[in-house]
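Usage

Read records sequentially. Each one opens with the input sequence:
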Amino acid sequence: MTADPEFRNPGNASTSSSCTGKNAYQVHASSPAIRAGTVISSNGGQDAFGNAVSATAAPNIGAYNGTGGNLLSNAGFETGALSPWTQASGNSSSVTAANARTGSDALTTAASTTATVYCWKNAGGSGAGYCDDLAVEPLSSATNAVTNPGYETGALTPWVQSTGTAAGVVASNACSGTYALQTAASASGAIQTVSGLTSSGTYLLVGWAKVATAGEEVAVGVKSFGGTETYLRASTTSYAQQPLSFTTGVSTTSAGVYCYKNSGSAAGYCDDYSLVKLL
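and closes with the structure output:
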């Protein structure tokens, strides 16, 4: 790979940055090095910063293997209400059951071609707040390339079994809607080959996953796109978002999107997949 790794403060050049010393060589969340490495044996289990390095999941390229989590509440507006979001101006916005990227609901703003991006610490508290690395990126296409992404047809098609141990669609444990994919306890999952992608295109895959027994793991992943298979694993009994970015190969126009549970004693669940083109 030949690309800017997007170090936070390369060369420790910015004296105002809090990322100094070796921390200057952590990378931004948008770095192309994220989850673009290759699994190696006897990797030691940690990176240079103490972050875990999986023995099975693709690591970052380089000495930093960290990643961020979504700290927003009601991030997909699936409660059907605005709270804890509040109006940012006199022009009213609201949650509507339309135009959702995933799930059923989305935020509808008043018509505008501009937006104010801000960092704000409300009254109260005893210490400072900090913001960094904010970004606004246009979608090349908002169309979800995954068919039957939330299994709301009540059937698996066009997803197919990825192993001989059956996974199926159930009318329970949905992240949104009525249906979800349920795996068996181990060696079980489903995969969909998404075609019609653009070669050398950058895509964002998002899936939601949870497990029936805390501590076990179910993976949301993508493979066969002309690059290194990559996935994230959920280990909680409530749904957690699993966002992955990947770039298709120079002659590859499809990708295998999957949900898979490798081991354990109880089911895993996946729901509400979305695959959109970024660049």
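Summary fields computed downstream for this record:
- DSSP finds no helices and twelve strands in the chain.
- The mean pLDDT is 84.
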